[in-house]
Amino acid sequence: MATGLFFEGDYIWIEPVTGRQFDVAIGARVLAAEGRRIRVRDDDGQEQWLPPERRIKAMHATSTYTGSILVAVNPYQILPIYTADQIKLYKERKIGELPPHIFAIGDNAYAHMRRYGQDQCIVISGESGAGKTESTKLILQSWKPTLSSKHLETRKQ
What we know:
5-stranded antiparallel beta sheet; Kinesin; about 30% helix; 9 strands; two-stranded antiparallel sheet; SH3 type barrels; alpha+beta
């Protein structure tokens, strides 16, 4: 069902109610619409009805897939899409189950390595300032909980 500019399944940013300096928008997915109100599930898993006066904006995709290739654009701004909760969300999910994300690529490579015992390679390319170093850090960050728990299991034995 449509809500003016937004449709069921769309991803949006919900602007913070307060105007404090370090408040950031939170991501959400449109679940339903009723008149000018929309029902969403935010990145914290909370469902809520947003009144028409609540400030929201479309979540413009910074990533898309081309086969198993992730094409990402550096948004040059802080986005709340690289959190520990996002790492958990993409863990053990197949590519395409959720919106394109660097964590999906990292988890998929790690899972294939474990499952098939084959080396994996992730190629990160781009021009200067495109975000190659940050992308590498994000993939390593997403592996950290898995690698840390495996290391602890090995040490306990």
